[in-house]
Predict the structure.
Amino acid sequence: MTTETLVPVDEALTRYDPVMGLEIHIELNTTTKMFCGCPTEFGAEPNTQVCPVCLALPGALPVVNAKAIESAIRIGLALNCEIAEWCRFARKNYFYPDMPKNFQTSQYDEPIAFDGHVDVEVDGETYRIDIERAHMEEDTGKSLHVGGSTGRIHGADFSLVDYNRAGIPLIEIVTRTIEVPGDKAAAVARAYVSYVRDLIGGLGVSDVRMDQGSLRADVNLSLKPKGSTTLGTRSETKNVNSFRSVERAVRYEISRHAGILDQGGSVLQETRHFHEDTGTTSSGREKSDADDYRYFPEPDLAPVSPSREWVEELRATLPEPPAVRRARLQADWGFSDLEMRDTIGAGALQLVADTIEAGATPQAARKWWLGEMARRANEQGADLDSLGITPLQVAEIQALIDAGRINDKLARSVFDGVIAGEGTPEEVIVGRQLEVVSDDGALGDAVDRAIAGDPDAAQKIRDGKQAAAGALIGAVMKEMRGQADAGRVRELILEKLT
Ligand SMILES: [Zn+2]
């Protein structure tokens, strides 16, 4: 274990410029796998969604999933890419225990989509990210290392492998090098991943859930001394699984690379693991550009040559471009530029849209996601969409507030319950006895006790000073643990004393 010298990011950026490259893997939501008919549903018993093809038994022959090709083309078009007139799959040969074939069926020099771009916005500035390629490949299985304290293979007693995920269609989106002002690099990386999430989510071809691994990002980063044109050696931080972590991984690697370079050292070209708990990365495996995967065209699969007519048909099915959609939503919702920017920056655009779709007002949707939910996400170091509460539930809770059954304060308790898995908002209200009491019998008794307990305040109200009612309302709310209908309590106090 080597101790790393870290240089504060701000200081590092006075001497170096970061150069990034981002790779995003998108798991498609086809109902069957890339080259066989096995189901793709998440969370099944291990090794129940497998067949001779995805287990690579001798003699098994793959057949390409047409729906996956269609999804790949739609993704390519949405990323403003060219779509290949003819392309092939290739075998990428390497050994990995969770990869039954010992090669991955991928694409090499003939990707289905290439030469695209997207524009992302950070702090009101637009940055163009060039897309080198988007290619098709298949996912690997999953290893589970049992017995060690870290969950990694070192120190484990034994390992288990689950091939359910092996063969699920993936699209890998690779950017060209990204060079933006150093102080914006981390935010641009985050904004890009968030943008791609929204873009692909809008196509309906993937669940794009970072917390479930259906969207995974690799962050490549190198530093070059200011004024230099020579690229430094890059590290590849793999499988970063939240937007926030993308940003933190960029910042950590800037600090780490600067520490090495300042001491005259050389950065090792390697993969790195990101650690959510500490925000740090650690060494994975060494990697060189000379790694020889012995790529060769896959002989068992026919080349893919989508007709231009089909490509144009698919282009016509694309949803409106994100910039157009954002402008339309902003107008529909009546958000200010700042409100809209904050919503997008928080990765909450789709959540807010879905909450409004489910019946909440735009301001209520924004208030909950950017206030209460953002606070919780921040505390947990998680993204908003992995908090365990859905837009529909947020809209339901707001409807319960609007109906007077709970107030904002009680709503927070309902959020707690829903997130803790206690059921629907309705079930949490019943289970936790959270309903606002507006029944005159119960409220009247509490009002009588409050009046008896504070004769001074009561006398002031009798003398016409209605502002004194606040003290009595406070006493009633306290007695009823915040569950009294404050408006009705006020009316009852004034009825009794004036
Ligand atoms: Zn299969």
Summary: The chain has three domains: 9-311, 320-431, 440-497. Residues 9-311 form one domain. DSSP finds 16 helices and 14 strands in the chain.
